[in-house]
Amino acid sequence: MKQIFLTSAMLIMVNVSFGQKKGTADVWLTNADQSALFEKQKQALVFKKATSQDSVIEVNDQKSYQSIDGFGFALTGGSAQLMMKMTSANRAALIKELFATNDKNIGISYLRISVGASDLNEFVFSYDDLPDGQTDMSLSKFNLSQDKTDVVPVLKEVLAINPKIKILASPWSAPAWMKTNNDTRGGSLKPECFDVYARYLVKYIQAMKAEGITIDAITVQNEPLHPGNNPSMLMIAPDQANFVKTNLGPAFKAAHITTKIIIYDHNADRPDYPISILNDAEAKKYIDGSAFHLYAGKIEALSEVHEAHPDKNLYFTEQWMGAPGNFKRDIADHITKLTIGATRNWSRSVIEWNLAADPNNNPHTDRGGCNRCMGGITIDQDSITRNPAYYVVAHAAKFVRPGSVRISSSLVGSLHNVAFKTPDNKIVLIVINNSPGIQKFNIRYKGCKANTQLNSGSVATFVWDN
């Protein structure tokens, strides 16, 4: 018989007042064996003044850290394309499930989109593609083009459900005619095109605004040290610093663009990249913060950047799960390193790569597009399969709403955890048991305890009123 956390036989219930009123915590559970998949438990935990020999996770809202912008996915062009092929009724139901917070909806609060194509589009495009040998320094031929067939209409439906959702945009490449190799893959931005490319990004933000879509932030370049994707573009740190301080920052200022500028957007093995740019005072004044992926390095590198420049923000913007996936491994890896690890190292966001793919991990570009990137959901016409990343995002996004603040919670052995205080004065604690066996433990808050347990590999989100 499988052991399932918080069944009536296993739940330890107590009935003592929490302060001046009864304090209970709702519990949402995902088990590694998939016997529970982001399910609200029928019986709540109850806090009491009591002693217990079990380990204690101490939650303290008197010590706070960074604010949270949100949790979510990359809405790639491919994801939007698959959604647009669904029937309108089924697409509407899916968007409600993904972006609403009531009932069993998961409440995605942050999206990342690409400026032009990413490698998870069906084909490569920019907003100003030209025949070889031609240029358009005035950007007279700029057009949102392909985005109007998929990304823009999907975003409009999302905004109808959640008009406050934050959107981050990231370019994979400048138009080929602006690049040293005149190709969508690799190459660098020509020095003589720094100015026109800054104006290109301004026009993008303005064009999206004209569609009713506000771009909250933009990263300067996706994975600037990885020119092997299609599309992609190499941008070393000195060039990014020069582009920001000489072109992009002044162009935003001149056009009264309030979209945040975020640098780096690559792996945690090179914290020196964003630090070196932030060390340039002229560049720094235009920069909101730095973004990270975790295909190399350790998540603790984010704290290294925070310590060097505590006045600047940090964001976690991409991590994939490889098809066909391994539920137990993938849930543990991403909850531990990203949901918990990134936020405990000052990140304001956690974004999974990517929202959706079809059963064959399509679409993607040729010459370097990811052919093993498994979406948070798999879309097969109108049929939806929810994959591990869906549950990773759900455990945080539904409850840790934008404007929440990370608060102190003690680390206890293999019980990795993170805690938040929400704008509506609730406390949210996310815990995963990374030990090989069942772990009993206490949650202590303001002198009262709730005793519970988690199976190996299981994750729970606990929510209670402050």
The number of domains is 2
- Indicate the overall shape: globular
Individual helix count = 10
Oligomer: single chain
The CATH architecture of the largest domain can be named as Alpha-Beta Barrel
Secondary-structure content class: alpha/beta
* Integer average pLDDT: 94
Instruction: Count the E strands.
Output: 23
The proportion of residues forming helix, as a percent range, comes to 10-25%
Q: CATH superfamily name of the largest domain?
A: Glycosidases
Question: What does this protein look like?
Answer:
This is Glucosylceramidase. InterPro entries: GH (IPR017853), GH30_C (IPR033452), Glyco_hydro_30 (IPR001139), Glyco_hydro_30_TIM-barrel (IPR033453), Glyco_hydro_b (IPR013780). Keywords: Glycosidase, Hydrolase, Signal. One of its GO terms (biological process) is glucosylceramide catabolic process. It holds the Pfam family Glyco_hydro_30C. With 466 residues, the protein is an alpha/beta fold. The protein folds into 2 domains: 110 residues, Immunoglobulin-like, CATH 2.60.40.1180; 334 residues, Glycosidases (TIM Barrel), CATH 3.20.20.80. Helices cover 24% and strands 28% of the residues. It has 10 helices and 23 strands. The strands form 4 sheets. Strands 3, 4, 5, 6, 18, 19, 20, 21, 22 and 23 form a 10-stranded mixed sheet that branches. A hairpin with a 2-residue loop joins strand 1 and strand 2. The longest helix has 18 residues. It is globular, with a radius of gyration of 23 Å.
